[in-house]
């Protein structure tokens, strides 16, 4: 048996065993991964929920009319989606709104988000008067950048 510096050498029948002392830093000993993992899981849950709400506006069962010059949306925009189903009910963010509630929402949006645009997604079977009503409410609220969504010819 022989001690050389921080290394202890012990010779056993043809086997050399070496014990090495490791100096562990204080910073490494104080680092705990539990809070880091908690934060990662919270961020993951947040982004999953936020993505789900953004997709709800696009998943409402609305049959869009066709247009020959329609182009697919390549980027998910930050527009406000107003959906009108075949019965003339107006949906924003998955909630049914009447005329006054929609006007109030559009006015608040115009004040809070300058330059806000609105996408009107109306079922092709709904009378155009419902679409014209939403357009008129946009104008009354001060939102002049609105678009009626169509789907391209197949």
Which bin fits the share of residues in helices?
Answer: 25-40%
Unreliable spans: none
Strand order of the largest sheet: 7-6-5-8-9
The major sheet is characterized as: 5 strands, mixed
Strand content: 15-25%
- The outline comes out as elongated
Report mean pLDDT, rounded to a whole number: 77
Structural classification? alpha/beta
Number of helices: 4
Overall number of strands:
10
Distance between the termini: 86 Å
Rg estimate, integer Å: 31 Å
State the order of secondary-structure elements, H for helix, E for strand: EEEHHEEEEHEHEE
Describe this structure as you would to a colleague.
- The chain is α/β, with parallel strands linked by helices and 154 residues long.
- The protein is 39% helix and 25% strand.
- The chain has four helices and ten strands, in the order βββααββββαβαββ.
- It is elongated.
Question: TL;DR of this structure?
Answer:
This protein has helices at 26-30, 33-59, 99-112, 128-141; strands at residues 2-4, 7-12, 15-20, 66-67, 80-84, 90-92, 95-97, 118-122, 146-148, 151-152. It is α/β, with parallel strands linked by helices and 154 residues long. The model has no long low-confidence stretch (mean pLDDT 77).
